Amino acid sequence: MQNRDGQYDGLRRIAAALPESTDLPLIILVDQFEEVYTLCSRPEEQNIFISNLLHAANDPAQQVSVIITMRSDFLAETQHYSQLNELFSTQGYLVPAMNAKNMRLAISEPAKQAGYKLTEAAVSLLVEQAIGRDGVLPLLQFTLSQVWIGLQEGKDPDVTLRDLGGVGGALSKEAQRIYDGLSEIPRGQAIAKRVFVGLVDEKGTQNTRHRVALYKLRSHKDDPKAFRQVIERFSDRGVRLITLSGEIGSSEMVEVTHEALFNHWNLLSQWLEHKRNDRPFERRLESAATHWNQMHRPEGLLWRSPDLDLLADFVRRSNDDMTPEQMEFFQASNQAEIHEQQQKRQRERQKIIFLSVLSALFGVIAILLFWFYLQQSQAQKTIEAVFLGSDTENILKALPDLEKSASKLRDEVETPQTSDNPDKYYRQKKVEINKLFAYYRNILTETGRLGQENQQYKNQLQPIADRTEKALAELISKYRISQLKSDLKQNNFGKYFKEKSVTNFQNQYSGALRTTYEILFTTSGAGADLNKDGFVGDPQEAAQMPCQTLKEIEELWRKATDEKCGWYNRDGYYANDKDCKKLSADRGTLYASIFGHNTDDAINRIKQCGIPPR
């Protein structure tokens, strides 16, 4: 962990917490420091370890001293950390290679002090084979250990050296000897090959030790007992070609004891060369499988193509060498891929089904549209028959259809909620409701016209005319009369502006007079002014005004004016009603105010509707 200043000071704080740290500074010896680079593949972890060492060593309290030993061929790695590299340059000590004299002493003196004396010939042979060779000390160490074992058994050192093949062959010969003896163990030699290849880490052109958990080297096909026997053969105390550490189980670690084995055991060199192309992929697979397992095996960490394709090829080549964890990772990835492919096929099938249903639906829609087109065509023909001057027979046939169309539109426009606030609903649906007015007005117009022109059809047309007038009156009462009620309730009787001409239509008036005019004359009501001249000038125009509507208007005006203002009084429809003070003096009746001085058709309609003078 970093402190607030961003420094890794964990080691310094641990040292400071130790008892008597002030009087007895802590000395930390890091042997084989090169393993920071060979065994740790994550740069961030390398940085944390090195930063802790440097911070503790540079602490002014001088409670920690750090000593590092490292192979000289790894000095280049320190260039990634400038402070560490500088310390190696200024405070480092390069241990020189042994000369012949020092090496002779190193070989002979320990044996002599232990009570055994090596022959001069044996010492000379060892010095001759070891002097001036890079990395020879581990080989010499192993050779001397074998000589020592032989001495304890009473075996002459010269004979031991001859049997070993000297310094160069001692290590490799022993490894080969053990390997050849593994034929008695099931898959013993295959296990040994996998173990040693797995313990090598390739760093560029050089091979280094790779410390690894032992269980990661066991194949899913290995017998655990046979695997353990192979490991024990190579880790036996008298041989120690590989070193075990930690507790037996998942925490047990293994590594090659002598890296010199990499360059002197020919069989291992052949294995490494043969596996060279697969090693990067194996490391990647090992890392992926381990991470997947540590994260509780989420599906998102499994491999998909193209990585899975590469893994499948690798399994075909190296099935016998894969660990249980790697094999489970492959099988899970493969199952996930199969499942995804099945889902993909299922989605494709669903897509095909959907498209088929959609196609069928479009077919149905096309049929419905065609049917609708036919209906519209028929409706259009009906309208054309009524309004484009077709012969009487066609109009008579078309009128019932037009009446049905009007009823259908009424059902669409009117809902149960329209009665809650019809005035507000009219403002919201003005276009649709005015269209509905138009349907009924036009039917009323045609039935009236045909009845006048063809008396023989009058009885046939009258029921249609009666139903239409009733429907139109109901709509006017529901959506337009409410405005007149509101005007009269507020005593907004309005005025007649005599300076304006009749072609100003409703703009000749204000207030309740304007609303009354709109209800009777315009398209937002009965629309009696068919020719748009500002008058009700013939019986047909007069017949456009529903009797029920005329009666409602009469009653509303009488009620609002204490019975003083209505369509006309007993003195006549043009005579001024002296009691009606709400209207203009020269237009003292409602009739005179709305219809003016024109023909008698409007008053005849009022009388026909049974509205008496008062």
List the helices and strands and how they pair.
Elements: H1 10-17, E1 26-30, H2 35-38, H3 43-57, E2 64-68, H4 82-91, H5 100-113, H6 120-130, H7 137-152, H8 157-164, H9 166-180, H10 188-198, E3 200-203, E4 206-209, E5 212-213, H11 224-235, E6 242-245, E7 253-256, H12 261-264, H13 266-275, H14 279-294, H15 307-318, H16 324-387, H17 392-413, H18 422-428, H19 430-453, H20 458-479, H21 481-489, H22 511-521, H23 539-543, H24 547-560, H25 590-595, H26 601-608
Parallel strand pairs: 1-2
Antiparallel strand pairs: 3-4, 5-7, 6-7
Helix pairs in contact: 1-3, 5-6, 7-8, 7-9, 8-9, 10-11, 14-16, 15-16, 16-17, 17-19, 19-20, 20-24, 21-22, 21-24
Keywords:
614 residues; mainly alpha; three-stranded antiparallel beta sheet; two-stranded parallel ribbon; 26 helices; 7 strands; 58% helix; 5% strand; rod-shaped
Write a compact overview of the structure shown.
By secondary structure, the chain is mainly alpha-helical. Helices cover 58% and strands 5% of the residues.
Task: Tell me what you see in this structure.
This protein has helices spanning 10-17, 35-38, 43-57, 82-91, 100-113, 120-130, 137-152, 157-164, 166-180, 188-198, 224-235, 261-264, 266-275, 279-294, 307-318, 324-387, 392-413, 422-428, 430-453, 458-479, 481-489, 511-521, 539-543, 547-560, 590-595, 601-608, and strands at 26-30, 64-68, 200-203, 206-209, 212-213, 242-245, 253-256. A hairpin with a 2-residue loop joins strand 3 and strand 4. Helix 5 (100-113) crosses helix 6, helix 7 packs across helix 9 and helix 20 (458-479) packs parallel to helix 24. The chain is 58% helix and 5% strand. Among the domains are: 10-91, no CATH class; 100-164; 480-608, no CATH class. It starts with 9 loop residues before the first helix and ends in a 6-residue tail after the last helix. By secondary structure, it is mainly alpha-helical. It has a three-stranded antiparallel sheet. A two-stranded parallel ribbon has the order 1-2.
